[in-house]
Design a protein that fits this description.
Elements: E1 2-22, E2 25-38, E3 40-52, E4 57-69, E5 72-83, E6 86-91, E7 97-98, E8 104-111, E9 117-124
Antiparallel strand pairs: 1-2, 1-9, 2-3, 3-4, 4-5, 5-6, 5-7, 6-8, 8-9
Length: about 120
């Protein structure tokens, strides 16, 4: 059965580090830390790689969440992929642990005009 858990999160850390620039496109590595509140409660760390230039941006990343989801405690990893066509967040198969062992699914992030983030996890367990 598919379930949905919604939470808000804040960025506790955003630490970009430029690693290379050539022909107008810069590569960067970004370390991120988040705190979630709501039906997803806990923290995460993200390792992101970005490519950006004057006309486009893209990134890939992996996020390890140590959280409770609807009261079940554990951890799992999200794979991020984004460019101008949109954002894809997918749970890495086999990454669930604790009471989240076997979790699968996707997630979505929305940001409002005040830059508040909403995280929606659609999952099966």
């Amino acid at each position: 059965m598919t379930s949905t858990a919604t939470a808000s999160f804040v960025l506790d850390e955003w630490a970009p580090q430029a690693t290379d620039e050539a022909a107008g496109t810069e590569f960067a590595r970004v370390a991120i830390a988040k705190t979630f509140t709501g039906a997803v409660e806990g923290t995460s760390t993200v390792e992101m790689l970005t490519a950006s230039n004057a006309t486009s941006r893209a990134y890939v990343g992996f996020e390890r969440l140590t959280v409770s989801v609807d009261g079940r405690k554990g951890a799992f990893v999200l794979h991020h992929s984004a460019d101008e066509s949109g954002l894809t967040l997918k749970i890495v198969t086999g990454s669930g642990s604790g009471e989240l062992t076997g979790i699968s699914g996707t997630a979505d992030i929305e940001m409002d005009a005040e830059r508040n983030h909403t995280f929606t996890l659609t999952y099966e367990l």
